[in-house]
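Field reference: sequence -> structure
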Amino acid sequence: MLPKFRAWLKDKQRMVGVNFSAREEEMSVMQSTDMQDKNGQEIFEGDIVTIPYGLDNRLVKYLVKSSDSGEWRLTSLEPETTAYFSLFDKLEGLTIVGNRHENPELLEEVGFD
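Structure field:
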């Protein structure tokens, strides 16, 4: 598997494919997890996702991050929920709702910025 990346162009405020010709300070690179959400959308590092949580299956927001060991993690954006899960364990019902660059308000809503 070849790793795939995307980048957030800070000055242009848009997401692009990566060719690595830009300087590091001009972009934030996000790696593909090589997994898809329930709608078939490719999941990248930095995506904000929802998954059903608890007995009532309420939708809780998580941030997709890589761990120090290289595993993809879902880090809770809501303090009353479990802090993190392995992404592999929670694909069922997972939906991408945005990402940390194009939708920073999703992080601000829960005080995670």
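Note: The longest strand covers residues 27-36.
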